[in-house]
Amino acid sequence: MQVFTKRALREYGIQNPSVALELLEIFNDLEALEFNNGADVRAWKPKADYVGGDRWVINVGHNRHRLIVRIFFPAKQVYIRFIGTHAEYDRIPDITTV
């Protein structure tokens, strides 16, 4: 998959070193894997949640942080839409617009 953008994950990892390695692993997995549908996403991350609008939520750091990605299966593209704490995630009024 083609992932946009690594910079957001790298910067968040610098600010939150406890999840930096996990974010790097997620990025590397996203680049190496090829998702054809939601079942492929769940095979990779069984606890990933589809929230609508092509968006998936991935728990990071034992659910203390959340990553929202937008996956376009036919184009094989993944967009990083949000990375933040669980509390920051909870304040998002409509996840499908992130």
Structure in a nutshell:
It comes from Hymenobacter fodinae. With 98 residues, the protein is an alpha+beta fold.
Based on the model shown, name its key terms:
alpha+beta; 5-stranded mixed β-sheet; 4 helices; 5 strands; 36% helix; globular
Tally of helical segments: 4
Strand order of the largest sheet: 1-5-4-3-2
Oligomer: single chain
Would you tell me the overall average pLDDT?
Answer: 97
Helix and strand run: EHHHEEEEH
Radius of gyration: 12 Å
Overall shape: it is globular
Helix content: 25-40%
Strand fraction: 25-35%
Secondary-structure-based class equals alpha+beta
Sheet with the most strands, sense and barrel status: 5 strands, mixed
Number of domains: 1
Any overview of this molecule?
- By secondary structure, this protein is α+β, with helices and mostly antiparallel strands.
- It has one domain.
- The protein contains four helices and five strands, in the order E-H-H-H-E-E-E-E-H.
- It has a five-stranded mixed beta sheet with strand order 1-5-4-3-2.
- The radius of gyration is 12 Å and the shape is globular.
